[in-house]
Amino acid sequence: MASTADQTLADRPIEWRLENTQVPYRAALDEMEARNAAISSGEQEELIWLLEHPPVYTAGTSADISELVDPRFEVIEAGRGGRYTYHGPGQRVGYLMLDLNQRGKDVRCFVHAIEGWVIDTLSDFGVESWRAEGRVGIWTRDIDGREAKIGAIGVRVRRWVTMHGFSVNLDPDLSHFGGIVPCGIDEFGVTSLARLGKRVSQEEWDKALIARAQGFLDALDKSGRKACAS
Asked: How far apart are CA 170 and CA 89, in angstroms?
């Protein structure tokens, strides 16, 4: 069952869809494909979709079969950039179907803006996180003091309309990541807000993310793209 959040967050109309039940990954892919075409043709508005999936491994366009270590869940070709990743209960996923024709045709700055949005939201829960040179995603300090990934990013752009987006580990079963080499990076672990001692519900996460959304959208305007390029 989906709910709709405040649509005054941007100058242009954006539909916000917040799911409180799990959405199968294939169904989400079909919805993204259809919405991408509808946005491109001007038939529907942009969409930001927050949801959770049943356990699944997804393969990006750069996935290497050697990194599929133990495929204990279904493996689905995602069509996004990147390699293998895991989605499942306790992980909040954000799918962004935005028109970069109107928001600046700059995929690098789009990804940079997503990273900033997630980093700012994590800070609201007392978690310091950062970008890492050469490693797409959101990184933080794990309980053992080592760097670990707390959020993943993978996007696809077609007709300059975006699909896919990001995921953040609230409280997933971290052992499920053991079936793959997450994003092709095996020298660093995966962590979650719960592992860091932060118990955050879906509702709390969504509320904080939405409160930070205007900063993300502002980063896609001309001044934001200039800052990204600097």
From this structure: 9
